[in-house]
Amino acid sequence: MSTTNNELRVGMVGYAFMGAAHSQAWRTVNRVYDLPARARMALICGRDAGKVADAADRLGWDEHTTDWRELVNRPDIDVVDICTPGDSHAEIALAALAAGKHVLCEKPLANTVAEAREMAAAAATAQAGGARSMCGFNYRRVPAVALMRQLIADGRLGEIRHVRATYLQDWIVDPQFPLVWRLRKEVSGSGALGDIGAHIIDLTQYVTGQRISGVSAVTETFVKERPLPAESSGLAAQADGAGAATGPVTVDDAAIFVARLDGGALATYEATRFATGRKNALRVEINGSLGSVAFDLERLNELEFLDATRPAAEQGFNRILVTEAEHPYLSAWWPPGHIIGYEHSFTHQMRDFIEAVATGVDPSPSFAEALQVQLVLDAVTRSAELGSSWAAVEPSMATAAA
Ligand SMILES: NC(=O)c1ccc[n+]([C@@H]2O[C@H](COP(=O)([O-])OP(=O)(O)OC[C@H]3O[C@@H](n4cnc5c(N)ncnc54)[C@H](O)[C@@H]3O)[C@@H](O)[C@H]2O)c1
Question: Which residue CA neighbors atom 29 of ligand 1 most closely?
Answer without folding.
Answer: 84
